[in-house]
Amino acid sequence: MVFTGAGMSAESGVPTFRDALTGLWQRYDAQALATPEAFRADPALVWGWYEWRRHAVRLAHPNAGHRAVAAIQHRVPGTVLITQNVDDLHERAGSPAPVHLHGSLFAPRCSACARPAPVSDDAEGEPVDGRRVPPPRCAHCTAPVRPGVVWFGEALPGAALDAAVEAASSCDLLLTIGTSGLVYPAAEIPQVAARLGAAVVQVNPEETPLDGVAEVNLRGPAARVLPALVD
Ligand code: BJW
Ligand code: ZN
């Protein structure tokens, strides 16, 4: 199985959360943007920020690392891809059905009745960092639409978490790529695999808490290390 985090998309120009200079949480307050309380307090601030991030992802392209992951999946049928990322770069690189543990920028839903809502059209005007944009209203119950991502303090989507635990429990090798391993319960997935006897291979330019869990640490950026692995 393959388990990915924000570092996977860093070389596509999508910022990570915790990198020292470029991480989103260095520049933005997670409590004010990525919690249910923040959305209740200032829905337009939160919605505007996610519209800006969705727009940035639309302009980004999958990198050689995403393509290498897709190549692994095609070469080894049955490889499960679990991602913490809310972008769609794995899909666009040709990965079949990645499981999104932390939701998606492209799956907004009603904050009250949870029905899916349409993704806004970028033609409506380019979203700008920091601009408040009132969220659209649900077509069924008129409550504000919310981003379809998992905020701090929220449960992960049950089916996605089940799929991740199932894959970690039954795989013989887990390749973890570009995650700090700090956010739970996602960070438990490589630990579960290691505990049940799978080999864990990590790709990351920096040290992480998963270094001790991994049998092999490939210290480098995903877009360079992964193509070398599959070639
Ligand atoms: C490269 C690279 C290159 C760079 N190539 N690599 C204390 C202890 C334990 C837990 C908690 C605690 N206090 C609170 C909690 C719980 C909390 C948590 O874990 N907090 C910790 C931060 C302390 N967890 C939650 O709240 C979760 N829910 C929960 O626990 O619910 C309980 C519950 C149960 C039942 C009912 C109700 C509730 C939810 C977590 C949701 C996380 N959401 C986010 C935001 C998503 C939306 C958005 O995008 O805005 O998900 S936070 C953010 O972190 C995002 C990511 O998916 C997630 C993980 O980050 P990731 O991917 O690892 O990125 P980084 O930036 O951290 O690391 C990047 C890595 O890449 C680095 O290592 C770089 O070196 C590397 N890198 N360039 C390869 N080129
Ligand atoms: Zn609704």
From TrEMBL:
<keyword id="KW-0963">Cytoplasm</keyword>
<dbReference type="InterPro" id="IPR026591">
    <property type="entry name" value="Sirtuin_cat_small_dom_sf"/>
</dbReference>
<keyword id="KW-0862">Zinc</keyword>
<feature type="binding site">
    <location>
        <position position="113"/>
    </location>
    <ligand>
        <name>Zn(2+)</name>
    </ligand>
</feature>
<feature type="binding site">
    <location>
        <position position="141"/>
    </location>
    <ligand>
        <name>Zn(2+)</name>
    </ligand>
</feature>
<dbReference type="GO" id="GO:0036054">
    <property type="term" value="F:protein-malonyllysine demalonylase activity"/>
</dbReference>
<dbReference type="GO" id="GO:0017136">
    <property type="term" value="F:histone deacetylase activity, NAD-dependent"/>
</dbReference>
<dbReference type="GO" id="GO:0036055">
    <property type="term" value="F:protein-succinyllysine desuccinylase activity"/>
</dbReference>
<feature type="binding site">
    <location>
        <position position="138"/>
    </location>
    <ligand>
        <name>Zn(2+)</name>
    </ligand>
</feature>
<protein>
    <recommendedName>
        <fullName>NAD-dependent protein deacylase</fullName>
        <ecNumber>2.3.1.286</ecNumber>
    </recommendedName>
</protein>
<dbReference type="GO" id="GO:0005737">
    <property type="term" value="C:cytoplasm"/>
</dbReference>
<dbReference type="InterPro" id="IPR029035">
    <property type="entry name" value="DHS-like_NAD/FAD-binding_dom"/>
</dbReference>
<comment type="function">
    <text>NAD-dependent lysine deacetylase and desuccinylase that specifically removes acetyl and succinyl groups on target proteins. Modulates the activities of several proteins which are inactive in their acylated form.</text>
</comment>
<dbReference type="InterPro" id="IPR003000">
    <property type="entry name" value="Sirtuin"/>
</dbReference>
<comment type="similarity">
    <text>Belongs to the sirtuin family. Class III subfamily.</text>
</comment>
<keyword id="KW-0808">Transferase</keyword>
<feature type="active site" description="Proton acceptor">
    <location>
        <position position="102"/>
    </location>
</feature>
<feature type="binding site">
    <location>
        <begin position="178"/>
        <end position="180"/>
    </location>
    <ligand>
        <name>NAD(+)</name>
    </ligand>
</feature>
<dbReference type="InterPro" id="IPR026590">
    <property type="entry name" value="Ssirtuin_cat_dom"/>
</dbReference>
<feature type="binding site">
    <location>
        <position position="222"/>
    </location>
    <ligand>
        <name>NAD(+)</name>
    </ligand>
</feature>
<dbReference type="GO" id="GO:0070403">
    <property type="term" value="F:NAD+ binding"/>
</dbReference>
<dbReference type="InterPro" id="IPR050134">
    <property type="entry name" value="NAD-dep_sirtuin_deacylases"/>
</dbReference>
<dbReference type="Pfam" id="PF02146">
    <property type="entry name" value="SIR2"/>
</dbReference>
<dbReference type="GO" id="GO:0008270">
    <property type="term" value="F:zinc ion binding"/>
</dbReference>
<feature type="domain" description="Deacetylase sirtuin-type">
    <location>
        <begin position="1"/>
        <end position="231"/>
    </location>
</feature>
<dbReference type="InterPro" id="IPR027546">
    <property type="entry name" value="Sirtuin_class_III"/>
</dbReference>
<keyword id="KW-0479">Metal-binding</keyword>
<feature type="binding site">
    <location>
        <position position="50"/>
    </location>
    <ligand>
        <name>substrate</name>
    </ligand>
</feature>
<feature type="binding site">
    <location>
        <position position="110"/>
    </location>
    <ligand>
        <name>Zn(2+)</name>
    </ligand>
</feature>
<keyword id="KW-0520">NAD</keyword>
<feature type="binding site">
    <location>
        <begin position="204"/>
        <end position="206"/>
    </location>
    <ligand>
        <name>NAD(+)</name>
    </ligand>
</feature>
<feature type="binding site">
    <location>
        <position position="53"/>
    </location>
    <ligand>
        <name>substrate</name>
    </ligand>
</feature>
<feature type="binding site">
    <location>
        <begin position="84"/>
        <end position="87"/>
    </location>
    <ligand>
        <name>NAD(+)</name>
    </ligand>
</feature>
